[in-house]
Design brief:
alpha/beta
């Protein structure tokens, strides 16, 4: 098992950066555009970002021939293209893009999404912070309302619950302003860059996107950060979303070790030795391999013990009930 990251963006991803020399706005909010593939008009995506007046835009390009990057970088000098040398995980892409940004806030979008927001970035800031400045400005992430191509609201908010000692997630649609969610669905949201980096970003050693998101969101709540929704900002998907793989892939074991095994007592967290048999049973590994993973996780929790504000049970027990 790869070593659990202890600092932000420990990945040594090989890439080339092109463009991004001119500032397009002065709101303090930039955009990160992730590319899902497919035949999307990239020029239209960047025109929309230009019109919205994002300060800068980071476009993460997969390891393929990007024949039009030079032309686009001249037409849109506020866009920085990150040309990857090899395929990396979703979390690695986001961490890499964040490391290239200087704006205090960033908005993660995809090339097949559209921001339904008249007035652009300044209107977003006005809606978020003028109505509830103390709440929105102190969040790790604010997630918009997500809609499909028919403008139907998607059940993109996630609530955690334990059922017979197993963690379950319950998707639901936003019914009022400021509801909590376990993680930003598909990564889409407005993030506080400083809080994101302090949290450590996404665990790049978890390869499955679903468990990478689960780990990020659960760690955020365990460490006292807030991820909440807003109905004031809407994002629509132009295409159907690919299905999420929620099976207990290898990433689940790391998620389980880091988020479900720690116990919070007093003012810190730790993993008791008595929890090893439970992990051994779930891991399906040999006792020696399971013990190696278990002791590594105990060391990681020990290092970060004072950053915990609660444990997994308390997160689910205190979760705000959803009322229509």
């Amino acid at each position: 098992m790869n070593t659990i990251p202890t600092t932000f963006n420990e990945s040594k991803t090989s890439y080339t950066a092109v463009g991004g020399t001119v500032r397009n706005g002065d709101s303090g909010l930039s955009a990160i555009i992730l590319n899902r593939g497919g035949r999307y008009l990239r020029r239209s995506v960047f025109k929309e970002c230009e019109k919205a007046a994002f300060d800068y835009v980071i476009s993460v390009e997969g390891p393929r021939e990007s024949y039009d990057v030079e032309e686009l970088s001249i037409r849109f000098p506020f866009v920085k293209f990150l040309l990857l040398k090899e395929k990396i995980t979703l979390g690695e892409e986001i961490n890499l893009a964040v490391s290239e940004l200087k704006s205090p806030l960033f908005f993660i979008l995809w090339n097949d999404t559209r921001l339904l927001q008249s007035g652009g970035v300044h209107r977003i800031a006005e809606r978020l912070f003028s109505n509830s400045p103390s709440a929105a400005s102190e969040r790790l992430c604010t997630v918009p309302t997500l809609q499909n191509s028919r403008f139907e609201t998607l059940p993109s908010l996630i609530a955690p619950a334990f059922f017979r000692n197993s963690l379950k997630t319950i998707p639901f649609s936003p019914v009022k302003e400021g509801l909590p969610t376990l993680y930003p669905f598909d990564g889409i949201g407005i993030y506080d860059r400083e809080k994101f980096i302090r949290l450590g970003g996404f665990d790049e050693t978890i390869k499955a996107p679903y468990w990478q998101m689960m780990d990020f969101g659960f760690r955020a709540h365990l460490w006292g950060e807030e991820i909440r929704s807003t109905q004031l900002i809407k994002v629509v998907f132009d295409a159907e979303l690919p299905p999420q793989d929620v099976t207990n892939a290898p990433g689940y074991k790391r998620f389980y070790l880091k988020n479900l095994l720690p116990v919070f007592r007093g003012d810190s967290a730790y993993i008791p030795f008595r929890r090893f048999p439970s992990y051994l049973f779930r891991s399906g590994e040999s006792p020696m391999a399971a013990w190696e993973d278990f002791t590594e996780a105990r060391t990681w929790v020990q290092t970060n013990r004072f950053r915990f504000h609660c444990d997994a049970r308390k997160v689910t027990e205190l979760w705000e009930p959803v009322e229509p």
